[in-house]
Amino acid sequence: MNPEKINHAFLDGVMSGEYPDVYYHFGVASDDPILKKFRDVKAVVLCGSGGRIIEFAEKWSKKRKRKIYALPKEERFVTRYCDGVLFASHGMGMPSASICVQELMRMVYFLKDGNLEEMDKVFWTRVGTSGGVGLEGGTVVVTTEGLMADMKPYRVLVGEREHYFDGDFPKDVAQGIIDASKDSGLPLEMGKTIAGNEFFIEQMRLDGAIRLAEESWKFGWLDWIHEKGVRNIEMEGAMLAGFMNHWGFSKFAMICCTLLNRMNGDQVTASKEDLHSYSERSGTVLFNYLDVILKR
Ligand code: R2B
Ligand code: URA
Predict the structure, then answer these.
(1) Nearest ligand, CA 127
(2) Which of 79, 7, 76 lies closest to 37 in space, CA to CA?
(3) Is 282 close to ligand 2, i.e. is its CB under 6 Å away?
(4) 208 and 282 co-located in one domain
(5) Closest Cα partner for 174 from 97, 255, 245, 100?
(6) In a domain, 62, yes or no
(7) Do 41 and 148 belong to one domain?
(8) Are residues 219 and 97 in the same domain?
(9) Does any ligand 2 atom lie closer than 6 A to the CB of residue 202?
(10) CA pair distance 90, 243, nearest whole angstrom
(11) Residue 130 Cα, ligand 2 centroid: separation in angstroms?
């Protein structure tokens, strides 16, 4: 962990009990008794949709025969906790997901009493969907590096200055995820992932209401990123890696199933059944890994 990067100016007062931390978008504060149930958190699982969070938590609860706890506010993010795993939805895109991740980082800090060694035992992952770059729909990609559309890491404006984060995902964790599913028969790949700040323009689609690229530009970009090792495109990974690396977490990952091969088109035309099976695939890969790291 990087203690000097943790916001002690704010969090020390929370830990000393001077004031509670309000996780506004989750509808709880650090002095809410429900958080006592979350203290044993060992993994944080994030995905875009609230419905999927509920399914994941139910699956985990059934497997482990443990009760599910929910946070009451669901209008922004849907949250469940069951047997060491905190499941939370993050919405779509980095502006939404960054709020979720920042509030959860503070929550984990509080839950682990600011103990860096305990915090670093927590595994974080996003499980989601993506567009394949040279990969057919249904391939599960485990990310090695999260970058933005220009192949540079996630950055934000701090007043007039630009702050760059580190987009690396820990390779040992990515390899561990692949190893845990090697007998699953699922198509698995490791590779870099682009996070677009937008589904159409920043992912070089030509089917948006607004079209700013021509076909030759789109394919030039897809070929360029493919050559540089990018295997899929989604909307949150560069931020997730950036924030995890900032505090120095060592166990985090992203597991995304592709819905289409962007080399062949822009519209998501897979059938309802195929889309369901694709989302099951990334879930299977997640649970295979959780079974390895959270053995009982
Ligand atoms: C993948 O799918 C969503 C857009 O359809 C977005 O949240 C993402 O990263
Ligand atoms: N999610 C994305 O962000 N892009 C795709 O192409 C598919 C899913």
Answers:
(1) 1
(2) 79
(3) no
(4) yes
(5) 255
(6) yes
(7) no
(8) no
(9) no
(10) 14
(11) 4
Distance, CA of 92 to CA of 78 (rounded, Å): 13
Mutate to test the pocket of ligand 2, among 198, 203, 218 (most ligand atoms within 8 A of CB): 203
**DSSP one-letter code for 266:** S
- Rounded average pLDDT over 147-156: 98
Task: Note whether residue 27 is domain-resident.
Answer: yes
Distance from residue 20's CA to the centre of ligand 1 (Å): 33
Are residues 86 and 199 both part of a single domain?
Answer: no
Strand partners, 158: 161
pLDDT in tens, 67-114: 999 998 999 999 999 999 999 999 999 999 999 999 999 999 999 999
Q: Is 128 in the pocket of ligand 1 (CB under 6 A)?
A: yes
Whose CA is closest to 44, among 113, 115, 120, 117? 120
Report CA(107)–ligand 2 centroid distance (Å). Answer: 29
- In a domain, residue 1? The reply is no
User: Which of helix, strand or coil describes residue 196?
Assistant: coil
Cβ atoms within 10 Å, residue 151: 16
Could you tell me the pTM of the whole model?
0.98
234 lines ligand 2 (CB under 6 A): yes
At 296 the pLDDT is 81
Boundaries of domain holding 53: 14-121
Q: Residue 161: how many CA atoms within 13 Å on its side-chain side?
A: 3
CA distance 173 to 169: 8
Given a contact cutoff of 8 angstroms between Cβ atoms, the answer to whether 207 and 269 are in contact is no
Residue matched to tokens 């996070």: 195
Would you state the structure tokens that stand for residue 200, as one six-digit string? 């159409």
Co-location of 177 and 83 in the same domain: no
Who contacts 283 (Cβ-Cβ below 8 Å, separation ≥6)? 52, 55, 56, 59, 127
Residue 4 in domain: no
In sequence order, what are the residues at sequence separation of 6 or more whose Cβ sits closer than 8 angstroms to the Cβ of residue 148?
Answer: 154, 155, 194, 195, 196, 197, 202, 238
Tell me: do 85 and 166 sit in the same domain: no
